[in-house]
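Pair request: fold both.
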Amino acid sequence: MATPLEIIEKKKNEAIERLGAKVSQSTTKINVGMATCEIAAGSRNAMAVFRDAIDSGDIEGVVLGQKGCAGRCYLEPTVEIFVPGETPYKYGKVDAERAKEILQRHLKNGEVIQEWLI
């Protein structure tokens, strides 16, 4: 019989597999929270930073999307990063400046910004 911890670990791995199936094997995906509450918190500014970087060719192989409310208003705006073969990352309180740092440090240099993860 599996322990509770083993059951949780199995469910976590299944969820990661399901999320991974939604994204191409070679495509990084960025989801910016665009629910009303996240827009009020400034998510359009973060979205613009990512969109401009993609449109200008500053980053390649990235798909930009939107996500709904996750019920964590105190952490908004939130941004999810899905990199093929890696655990999904979720950043909190992502304003335009943090979005620029995420672009440079995480997406270009592969450095996960631990202190901003939620």
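--- second member of the pair ---
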Amino acid sequence: MKTIRVIGGGLAGPEAALQAASRGHKVHLYEMRPTRSTEAHQTSDFAELVCSNSLKSESQNSAPWLLKQEMRSAGSFLLQDADASAVPAGHALAVDRVAFSARVAERIAENPNITVHREEVLDLSPENADLTILASGPLTSKPLTDALQQITGSDQLAFYDSISPIVDATTIDMDKVYFAARWDKGTADYINCPFTKEEYDAFIDALANAEQAESKEWEKLQYFEGCLPIEETARRGRDTLRFGPMKPAGLTNPKTGRWPYAAVQLRCENLRADSYNLVGFQNHLKFGEQARILRMIPGLEHATFLRYGQIHRNTYIHAPSLLTETLQLKARPDILIAGQLSGVEGYTESIAGGMLAGIFASALLEGRTPTSCPRASAHGSLLYYITHSEAKSFQPANITFDLLPPLEEELRKRIRDKKERHRIQCERALEAWQSWLQPVPAGV
């Protein structure tokens, strides 16, 4: 009988195993803990939530809510267990970690189609299974990482993730900033925040005294020279940032006719231009410190930050060049990648990836060609993002409305209210998702 090997007992692995097993397939689920633990895990439990206990917003018509609604309609097992383990958390779905893990473990133990192996997988040889779902997460062991690199190429895995802050465009003081392209090359798409010398000196002093985010012992970061956090760059000399991400050269301010002393550039995040990222402003500061210091940037004094900067350990593949829209490795279609290793961020997104991997793998074992999710859906948008992103700038992502297809221009002009736009996007997504689900039996 054909079998599926699932590697990883975090969130994506158990979900993938349960989806395939519920469709009658024999699954071998491998988890190396407790034989070998990771630097982050505290237990050997399935579905251990290493960081927070939140699976994000349950507010209707939010992007996290949409993803979970799609998962519920598709029969996600771990989301059922999360709902059953929920604790009061306002508009978020937060769980009792112990109860959640216990429910997942019980569900796996009760399924006769799943055999659990508490041992480390050292290679990805095709002789060991008909199909493999690799869901080993951001702390994939070195032997398994080496095996993956042999298949994909040594330069196809990233080990540190740098993320720049993102600001809500509506909270930028446009009277203090200006649009310009460096040396007037191309269109003036960047928002430039100009500094005087006094403002720059105060900003550098604040950076020098800022409190860094705590790093776990296993997450000691060896920064890439081409991607240093701004506070590290600032420590190399007071003018270092002025010759790096805050370089003013070629950014003539139309209000003064001169270059500013220094400048922060904001780059548009999406076609709707409702959010901008701070170019080159990855950092390793506590979020509270970021909120304080980034509001010292001219024009951002009252800014709302949609995301703060981060640099952290996170192993993931270069999905745009390696994965198909059905999570299969192009070089080895018998291997599917699920969870954070595929380039998604977050608990819910990882479970969603595991659910899809289980569905796709089941179709393959049954001799069917799996069909990717509709682009309009939250799942489809995540898959589209990780497999079609610009290769040079690919970074892991959570589900956001930026990933979903925008509304038609005429509709966007007519509907100014952002909440109403999101409601329509969610309605379209759920309709497309339901149509896709009809020929695919949900897990029971």
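Observation on the second member. The chain has 13 helices and 16 strands.
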